[in-house]
User: Fold these one by one.
Assistant:
Number 1:
Amino acid sequence: MEKKKEFEQGITSQKEDFSQWYIDTVLKTAMADYSCVRGCMNIRPYGYAVWENIQAEFDRRFKETGHENAYFPLFVPESLLMKEAEHVEGFAPEVPWVTHVGGEALTERLAIRPTSETVICAAYKEWIQSYRDLPVLINQWANVVRWEKRTRLFLRTSEFLWQEGHTCHRTEAEAREETMKMLEVYRECCETALAMPVVKGRKSESEKFAGAVETYSIEGLLADGNAIQNGTSHFLGQNFSKAFDIKFLDEDNTEKHVWQTSWGVSTRLVGALIMRHGDDSGLILPPRIAPIQAVIVPVYKEATKGLVLEEAAKIHAELRGAGIRAKCDDRETVRPGFKYNEWEMKGVPLRIEIGPRDIEKGHVVVARRIDREKTFVQRAELAKSMPAMLETFQADLFERARADMSENTREASTLDELAEIISTQRGFVWAGWDGSPETEAEVKEKTKATIRNIPLEGGEPTQGLKDLVSGKPAKHRALLARAY
RNA sequence: CGGGGCGUGGCGCAGUUGGGAGCGCGCAGCGUUCGGGACGCUGAGGUCGCCGGUUCAAGCCCGGCCGCCCCGACCA
């Protein structure tokens, strides 16, 4: 009890900075299972299970859209990394190098990959000769390193796990189509599996991927009002294929450079998940990716122990039989209340309480993590009704996030209005933009908000819309926010 | 790399004018408990970040170094 009081006092005292409070209480508290060494995540089994389930959701969709997995080298020879000018410039500041082996200097130093375009393009050059070899649709699950000046647990770590898709196409149209197709896969997966609503859109020139012609993103809004980029899809044009000389002989017997795309999501999604859905009591995981979807907590006294534990085990078996990821917490060393709190912190969607009184009455108590609502469910119906309860939970979680995002999306017509909104309420802000880098820079300078993207839906300027800085006619209706 | 802060049992911290290394949580044992983070008793666990200096005496004062966190510039 005392600990709880301390915890609550801690929250109150830190609420002046809402984001910091949120990170301290939700991200870090909930992350008891994680640690961070020099900005590199150390993910223990429960947390890794979350990532594995996220991986599985994305991977399934990649396969459904015709992609195959492969794995490429961790080290990138310097000469290779240097081939695409913009790419080098963009990544150089954050690339660590291997220069020595056993005390002996290497003749060519090796970069630890910040992303794999260069190694993969080197491979593609060898693989592709004919239009018949196209398209190449490959994805890689791997770790990458970007030595950022500042790290933030899960949201920006020096080393992170991710997925990078790299495709080659015969025509520009086909590559552009792929870019948009994967962006849509990301949106659908984020919203369906992770219950996180996102906005699809195109990045500004200054924010696009180093070496890309165009970058698209899905932008989400966290519970603290900060935006987060949950995934990106790039149309690379022929920038890399020209730099790496990836050519194919087309049907018309002329040599052409391939058109390429790349796209990625990372373990940042785990951080986004925590800070989108979590609350003061810890994580709330969407059932679709929760390592444990339902936890059974037996409640008993010495006299009823045998009976209750037996029933709990039976329920456990039934749920597993019904394909539910269930766990029976039959630890005898901690009391039920402790278990409730512990599993709530770990974000388990549903908790099933079973005690002597329940057995007598032929029901169980099912408690929902999202709103702590408790209902009685007939014992005989439990396994059967579980999938629907999980589906409802998933839908409710998404709806709650969607409603929050919509409530925290506003409009601004001047820089002052934007500044006011950003400093008092945060969230997304729509504003007219003439497309100039000057406006973009001015906005960032004055409000710390950035242009997240130009949404595919709603990004067209409305009649008479003006740039919020220059007052010139707007070319776009952009979505702005403070972001991680 | 600029500005600020902090290094004391596993975690979170207190430590007054320099003289006993402490508290809470956690951990171990025993007992009572068990429907929302239990309680009692007993106990284990620390070269006070590192090096040097001042002093009869340093967690505390001085110098240097190392590490971490936060705010900026950079970014998935």
Number 2:
Amino acid sequence: MELRHLRYFVAVAEELHFGRAAERLRIAQPPLSRQIRDLEREIGTALFARVPRGVELTPAGTAFLPEARLTLAQAERAQRSAQRAAKGETGRLRVGFVEAATHSGILPDVLSFFRAHLPSIGLSLFELDPLQQAEAFQDGRIDLGILHSPPLDAERWLRVEPVYAEPVVLAIPKSHRLGGRARLSLGGLADESFVLFPRHVEPAMYDGIIARCRAEGFSPRVVQEANGWHTLASLVSAGVGLAFVPRSISSFQQAGVVYRAVRDLDVEMSLSAVWKRGERSPVRERFVTAMRAVAGKLSRSARGAK
Amino acid sequence: MELRHLRYFVAVAEELHFGRAAERLRIAQPPLSRQIRDLEREIGTALFARVPRGVELTPAGTAFLPEARLTLAQAERAQRSAQRAAKGETGRLRVGFVEAATHSGILPDVLSFFRAHLPSIGLSLFELDPLQQAEAFQDGRIDLGILHSPPLDAERWLRVEPVYAEPVVLAIPKSHRLGGRARLSLGGLADESFVLFPRHVEPAMYDGIIARCRAEGFSPRVVQEANGWHTLASLVSAGVGLAFVPRSISSFQQAGVVYRAVRDLDVEMSLSAVWKRGERSPVRERFVTAMRAVAGKLSRSARGAK
DNA sequence: CGAGTGTGATACCTTTCCGGTATGAGCTGC
DNA sequence: GCAGCTCATACCGGAAAGGTATCACACTCG
């Protein structure tokens, strides 16, 4: 049995007339008769009763008709379903992301965009550090990662696309003498203590900061390293030292910490989307596109506020 | 798109290997590759990603797989549905019947049989007199009739199959002098008044009664005609006269009426199944078969009780 | 690094079967 | 009883499915 048989059967059942049905199907009447005969033979029972002025449905045909229609409709649904998935309008996306994707605002905004415009896409979210993301990719547990920078050896099989960057500011304990100044220069920080993130988390930002300090004639004294921007902020709050952090952290208003822009520090924190090389996924492409759009809007509104 | 494409697609999606899928499908690998390619072209997107060690499903393929399975399952269900209808295991039957079908017990028993053994058959029941049944057949409102005897002109296009017969007894007002006798002879009824059903309702029974009376040397004095066995019984109860009725009526115990067998009155009331000539309906055939079985059981138990 | 193996794709041929044309058989209605 | 309508049958040509041989590519392993 093929869908052709069902299409022909439905046409005859609707016209109750082989000639008209054949016309509607754009074929001649004899081949139609033969296809129906073949279908009846395969099912093992007559579907039509041949009567003088055309045909009638037998009880078997009457039972078959709605089921045949359902089958044809289901076949069409299958086709449309594949096409929608190919266009990225449906499907499932598993996203691993670092903490900064949340507080930069990019992830929440993309999520609300997807919920509003593409509700039939299922999203699974996992907060994972870069190393965990690399593992998750290898195990096939996620389709997209959001991080600052992938583990060094992972660049070979991961495609990395920068999507967002935001300025770096200095986090200062409220009681610190520098907290009062509205604007600081980098050169004035030569004698301070710093808490810093591990270089591998965001090498570009790390190297940029070190290079700018060198240019000002000093090497920052790092008294502690720590993972996670919020952790860094709480160390600052505890008075351990100053910290360079992405500006969006400042919106969280950690008690005992103030944030200041630093003149001469044109360094940015970046966020990139990463995925397995050579893996095509329309949903992921849509997600990355949405991320870029959201990133653009965020950057513009930040500049406007400045 | 044809079901063949779906069958092939599902096989490849399950094996993730063209060679093994082809083997399972009992075809060679190249034609399978081509069918899949044709399917992908028709849908407009790749369903498989060709990778070194076989193939993987693309997002479109992943979305397509369950829908394709549903389509194939639905096609099978359609086929089975037609086959079940052809065997009379499913479908709908509209039955018109005269009152006697109910009180003879044959209709209630067939109904309970159907509900127990063939629950997926929908039954629609209409109490209709023979004339109404003939009209309902012509309008296509019923598929089966149960009556004593069809209208005269209807025998040409109706098939009539006797399925049941039961003895005729005499209904007598309780106060009547004959009510006391255990057994009556027909000859002793020559001077009585009778209420009788119209001849066309059941000509065989009518003629049989008249002929038996003639043989006993009298012609029954009919003081009133009436339709419906219960109506007849209530006229008897009112003292209008005696009435010949089917024995099963006696089980209703109409107040003021007693029923007596009459010696020499070997006449029966018959019930027949009727349907449009040349119309094949497996459900109707099953119903008639069930009616015959029930009728046999009823006759045996009645004889046993006698 | 090169031969070997396994995979799907391509080329080409054979066979099946779908669709077309011509015609027949059966019933209806004038 | 004959015209007219309807579906079935017979037969033919061509599209398309399936088979065989072979290629291209990539990974593997010595």
